Amino acid sequence: MIRGSWVTAALYAAVSLRIPNLLASGPLSAEDLARATGAAPDPLRRLLRALAAHGVVAERDDGRFEKTDLSDMLREDTPGLRGLTLMYGGPVWWTSWGETLHTIQTGETAFSKVHGAELFDYMQRDPEMNALFNRVMTEGTVRLAREIVDAYDFSGFGTIVDVGGGQGWLLSTILAAAPAAHGILFDQPHVVETARPVIAERGVDARCRLVGGSFFESIPAGGDAYVLKWIIHDWDDDDATKILRNIRAVIPPAGRLLVFDRVLPERITDNDFLTRQGTLSDLNMLVNVTGRERTEAEFRQLFDAGGFTLTSARNTSSDLGIVEGAPA
Prior knowledge:
This protein is an alpha/beta fold. The protein folds into two domains: 4-76, Winged helix-like DNA-binding domain superfamily/Winged helix DNA-binding domain (Arc Repressor Mutant, subunit A, Orthogonal Bundle); 93-327, Rossmann fold. The protein is 50% helix and 15% strand. The protein has helices at residues 4-16, 19-23, 30-37, 41-53, 69-72, 82-89, 91-97, 100-106, 110-115, 119-125, 127-151, 169-177, 189-201, 237-248, 273-288, 296-306; strands at 58-59, 65-66, 159-163, 182-187, 208-212, 225-229, 256-260, 263-264, 294-295, 308-315, 321-327. A seven-stranded mixed beta sheet has the order 5-4-3-6-7-11-10, sandwiched between helices. α6 crosses α11 (127-151). It is globular, with a radius of gyration of 21 Å.
């Protein structure tokens, strides 16, 4: 565990040099890759051997290196983990994690100490980080969207509002699975504009309306279901309650609130992979944003404060949390 950060640093270097893309066309030697990337041959070979030891690339008998299933997930032309590697391994995220102790001692985010602003305010002045963050959210949604529509039946809703829906991948997947439904994609104006090509490419633009705004101010009316994926966990209870109350102000009596966030266990009695992932994600929310992952009891309290009754909460086999509520 102590050396886990070294693996992240190695992955970041490889992805920054586009090694996974270069290996996609066939095996290459360290010298070939050095010429293609401008890197020094011996240090690059040592990086590649470390990555081979972790299954990211494979070293052949002739000394050349070749792709693996893991390296394919790090290519820039696939919706895998490249964006997440660049964000978590890059200097913006990396330096804030170095101030974790500050967060534990003060309750303030390490991100704000290091960068002088909370994450979402910081991204407004750093277009490169903003674009990377949006890419990471889209990549994650591409991986989960199919699972969401398999796990929850949206066919009974007439209009589905995706609150903080980013570039529209989840909503377009939902609308493809529920062909009679219409959708409203709601996010900040500059984010919504980037969704137009996705919505059009996926063939649901005739059934989907794009609305720009802030979910802290108001939420579009007219939905039967209000969806929030990876939104509520970004915010503390006060801010999360504001979002829920704004939805409560417009949702009809028979409407449904659907929150897709992890549901943490009430007590940590196991150290399985999903539990480790969930609790580390909670630390990430603590260090880098003002939010948190929540237990079912914490979701219930939050829903009550926002004007909703929690009707069900569960995790899928991949740790996707589905928390459903109805207007109280």
